[in-house]
């Protein structure tokens, strides 16, 4: 047996092998040592034909799922090796085979999955300047494929990986050599990452597998001319065949997408806008999803997350969604009923996965059938819908009455967990089964009658018929009555107070009962399998219906949130104006309980109002205002109503944010470096149709460096001849407000405060014009900084203002140690040692400004600053 183990282990080297031995899965050698540590199991030993005993530990087979879940959550792969023949019938060693390898990206068990989240396996096939990506969720049968080419490929691959957030990533060797991709996976992906051999990425092999799996040509799948997407898809399929081994028919089709179908949102923007979870605590509460998610089904929960992360850029598709939301918004009664109906719908997608894989029991079938009960009424409510998307949903929902009927006819109301012990098939479903059952009942009642008959025959008043698993049915006579025992009784067992006997008649009846029992169990299993197979064959009908319910659920959720929170329908068009009247921040307003949220207007266009410079004290609400604008645009483009009195949103192709100091020490970058890398990325990728949220650019370095960068960036983004993107730019560098007079399309705004003595009141109103002051000291006082420190701060401030350096308020004085500070021109920044000055000047002379890209400029600037500081 140990040899058999070694052979199987050799075929599955990078897994922990769960080796079935009777009622246990055992692990040996290194696997045992590792698992005993990870799962806190006792490590024992077993003879293995060598001097030393093999380290061993095990888990009971009936509770293995929890152990596997823990290992998989830690990133291990678990190979499940079963006994694949009946040990009673095996000649010699029982045959064993690996029936499945469970890996983080291929899990289908409910206990290992979060119902509101997809669980993706990602394959990256990168060749030169092109790449194919495939994201597969085996638990729902969802397979999404794309092909990327040219321009910042590694960055875009990372962006897609960030968007899908897979649990497992398979890279081809070339992608594995890209530091950007591997660093990204290491730092930003929660799952496991592995580099697969080049041989797996063979185009011919992959195409062949795809054709065989989907029974169609690449052309039908629209994969022709997309060799990289084909390879990524083929590798994903190959990996699933290797790990799942059965049930692959669950994957019925692919959806081919292109990045350009969606608004571009890079990973840091998703995080900054807190779309799915908050930045600090990583919780759903406090995110946009938390506000918008009123879905009732697990399918809806997964889809709403997906929609929020992928705003659309097609005006027609957005309008379709908005029309549907609008109709559900106005039809409050229908919406409420739909909500209640959908509440009863279980996770049909994942139930179907278990049905197809053959791991669904009677309970899963019943859950499916319960869900189907609500479909006819849902369809009926949608019958007179006017919105195109609701009509499509109406058509797509199949009431599946035949499936529901069959399950209800066949399966009892409360089926047992196991499908192999009987008690699952309802009376009346199969005549043959009912006959055997009747026969068994008859035999049992005969046995019951034997007690009275034998008492009478023998004259033993307290004679009893009993049953145990070892002897079957027996007649029990107490010691005092032994003399009356008839000679035909055969003694079987002697106990302290009694003797147990059998009779010929009893044994015959027993055989009938037990034989019938065995036949019933076998037949029930067979009937159950037929039902399961029938349901499994209806996969595409059920899957389409499940997806339609998911869409309806999300649309109802949007309508419900809009009704509860007082949102309005945005007008979405192809023009380039974003005009928001009395906009609110969807999350901040929901979180605020005691004070009302103060609404504010926004106007951005590609003409007079391209860039808004927003000044105002700390805590005034600058960040809130900028994020609310971004969120309203995003909400409009996912087809949702928005928190405003009115809103017009010209389609925005991307939102970029640069906010706060997000230290990325894990990836070895300083705060300022992260800030500049993000700025560089934005300047390179933004277009005229982008929306930029730039919060305190340049604050991560010294005042003059920071201010210069801030100004240069603002000039670049606002200038129509350069980028000319819609920009909200918050800053404490009040000098920048001068740009309003110098640059076309730049407008100053500030968030008003009222000052009385040393105290300030935040009015939260955005008004035209630059702020007159930063009120940093007043805000510090509000925050509870001790009076002595505050008094000293004011003294220093007066000194600074007296010396004419007030122009650079608020100063980021990290480099200045003693007040009063010297004049900036005389500061350390300018007094370089001659050699450093020479170096910098030489470097500058080498630069050809006309051919510089913004990122190169920033890199040079960064290098020069560093040299100067040194
Ligand atoms: N329009 C509003 N109505 C009511 N409360 C608001 C509004 N805007 C912001 N707030 C409140 O003010 C707090 C501070 O806002 P925010 O973080 O946007 O200020 P800020 O100006 O960006 O500050 P800093 O410059 O220090 O980053 C928010 O947490 C919120 O509670």
From TrEMBL:
Every DNA mismatch repair proteins mutS family domain range: 690-706
Gene3D superfamilies in the cross-refs: 1.10.1420.10, DNA repair protein MutS, domain I, MutS, connector domain, P-loop containing nucleotide triphosphate hydrolases
Name of this protein: DNA mismatch repair protein MutS
Source organism: Solibaculum intestinale
Matching SMART domains: MUTSac, MUTSd
Matches recorded under PROSITE patterns: DNA_MISMATCH_REPAIR_2
Keywords: ATP-binding, DNA damage, DNA repair, DNA-binding, Nucleotide-binding
Region feature (Disordered): 805-835
Family: Belongs to the DNA mismatch repair MutS family.
Annotated ATP binding sites: 616-623
Functional summary from the UniProt entry: This protein is involved in the repair of mismatches in DNA. It is possible that it carries out the mismatch recognition step. This protein has a weak ATPase activity.
Gene it is expressed from: mutS
